[in-house]
Structure formats: structure tokens, C-alpha cells
Amino acid sequence: MSEINIEEFINVDLRVAKIKEAHEVPDADKLVELILDVGELGEKRVFAGIKDAYELEDLTNKLVVVVNNLKPRKMRFGISEGMILASGEGGKDVFLVCPEEGSKPGDRVK
Fold first, then answer.
1. Rounded distance between C-alpha atoms, residue 14 and residue 56, angstroms
2. Which bin fits 8, alpha (ψ -120 to 50), beta or left (φ > 0)?
3. 42-94 pLDDT, tens digit each
4. Which phi and psi (to 5°) does residue 86 adopt?
5. What is the dihedral of CA 20, 25, 26, 27, to 10 degrees?
6. 32-37 and 14-24: which strand pairing?
7. Is the pTM of this model over 0.85?
């Protein structure tokens, strides 16, 4: 694994986001479409490979951490405007990084 320096790390804008909506992505095996509330920074649409690990209705209103300044990526299903943080091997073993109660959408993760 390559190392990054502190200047590279501080350029990554990690923010708390609230999942406003979670939708199934037709013809996608792993992806769900998430509409995220990033507070005063607005909304983002993100595609995440968490379909096997979470029920859509359990995602709504969950707080997550998003890479807010990731360059938008055109995908077959639409444009993904960020990336949510998760751990695990994949499939059913995916675990979202969730801020504790008291965090608000838009808060910077330091």
C-alpha cells in the first residue's frame, strides 16, 4: 500500500451525510442509488455497492460519511457524485461508517 502525505490527505473532504432516499438500481447486481443530504452543501447522488448488505428501507435517515469532493463519475446507471465509506469484504459483509448521534449533515470529518 502506498502512503500519502498530510497535504494529500487534507485535500480529501470527508463530510457527514444523511441518506434521504435509497433506490434499487435496475439491472445492477450490487448497486443501490442513494440521495444524500450534505447539509448546507446540498444533495448528492451516489451509487454504492451495498445491495446485499442492507435493505433499502433501513438506509433512509442513516448518517454516513461521504467523500464530498470526489470527481463525479459517469456510470452506466447515471452520474455518481461521491463515495460513501464502508468496511468489509463485500457482499453481505459490508459495514457503513456511521457517525454517532449528534453529528449533523454537512459536518466535516476530521
1. 23
2. alpha
3. 999 999 999 999 999 999 999 999 999 999 999 998 999 999 999 999 899 99
4. -150, 160
5. -170
6. antiparallel
7. yes
Can you list the pairs that 95-101 forms with residues at least 24 positions away whose Cβ atoms lie under 8 Å? 95/53, 96/50, 96/54, 96/62, 96/64, 97/64, 97/65, 98/62, 98/63, 98/64, 98/65, 99/16, 99/63, 99/64, 99/65
Residue 27, Cβ density class (10 Å: 0-12 exposed, 13-18 middle, ≥19 buried): exposed
Beta bridge partners of 19: 36
CB 65 within 8 A of CB 104: no
Amino acid, res. 29: D
